[in-house]
Amino acid sequence: MDTFYSHLDFTVAIPTFNGASRQLLQLILSLQKQEKTEHISCEIIVVDNNSTDGTAGLIAELQQNWNHRFPLIYVTEQQQGTAYARQTAMQLARGEFVGFLDDDNIPNANWLAEAYWFGRTHSRAGAWGGRNDGVYEIPLRPEFSTLTNYMAIQNRGPKAFICSKYVLPPGAGLVVRRLAWLEHVSPIPILPGRIPEFYVNGEDVQSCNQLQHAGWEIWYNPSMVIDHYMPAARLSVSGMLSLMRSIGLGRYPIRWVRENKWQRVPRMLAYFVKDIFCFFKHLWQHRHDMKTNLLAQCYLKLYQGILLSPWAFLKWRIRQRFIRPNSAK
Questions:
Q1: pLDDT tens figures, 251-303
Q2: 9-232 architecture in CATH?
Q3: Which of 10, 16, 120, 218 would be 42's cystine partner, CB 3.0–4.6 Å?
Q4: Running DSSP on this structure, what letter comes out for residue 45?
């Protein structure tokens, strides 16, 4: 569309890596069908994070035939990691609010309107997330049914509430107040998101914790609903074990950001002692069934990742000093 607005009500930001092979097309088409948006100005920004499939061609084809009042914008971010892609989107966004959708998320028809009006009616909300329903390519194993929160799938009930620093909405479907983010969220992510050399989850927690430290509220808003597609590979035993380890590896940097500066060192030492105790307690409790109990194996991977987390994070930070962040192109 030729119409240009320097300021908009809403920006939908879509970080993607090889999204053409996932639900990226369905996601963009679903944004064309959002309801009750007649009085909401919006743009869609797709940030391609080094895709090697047909993502660039898919967006180019959509842009050629685009006939919707929400502009469709395509940029690239060469620094690998979802956190970097989100920062690129935030620097380009013109919306008062910015909603992050992953390329495996499909929002319900009223998601955008609900997200926008929640921000307008909750002036102290710095970020808010909604209900994420799992859509599984293969049936979810019964043993994994208690682990869905680790997969960015959440349903915390029918009532909105302010989140604590320990229970935060996932990055999938998270909406933020752009000016609050730009003022208080560090442009250098403490965690990059899952990348081959540092496969760690939890990059979305940093921004919420920093907003909380600045006095902003983080909300759960159940009227915002998205479908989160889970491929078979992530639901396999090896996929779940890998996921749990990656969540564990991100635990210490998340704790570091979450705590007040003067509390960090003593809290980290206390956490480390507690984590060692939990690890050996888990081994003892499941000494007879560890080889057959998939849930116990998953939690063992989590505890192992937590114990390795300080050293993995230190290694990542040392490596990070030799990486020059790339700008969006």
A1: 888 888 888 888 889 999 999 999 999 999 999 999 999 999 999 999 999 99
A2: Alpha-Beta Complex (3.90)
A3: 10
A4: E
CA distance linking residue 227 with residue 135, whole number of Å: 6
Asked if residues 22 and 109 have their Cβ atoms less than 8 Å apart, the reply is no
Task: Say which residue the tokens 């979450």 belong to.
Answer: 258
E-assigned strand segments in 112-216: 125-136, 161-162, 175-177
Write the DSSP assignment of 131-156 as a string of letters: EEEEEESSPPPGGGGGGGGGGT-B--
- The answer, yes or no, to whether residue 319 has pLDDT greater than 80, is no
Tokens of 325: 């962040």
Residues 6+ apart with CB under 8 A from 262: none
Q: Which tens digits make up the pLDDT trace of 127-185?
A: 999 999 999 999 999 999 999 999 999 999 999 999 998 899 999 999 999 999 999 99
What CA–CA distance (Å, rounded) separates 111 from 317? Answer: 37
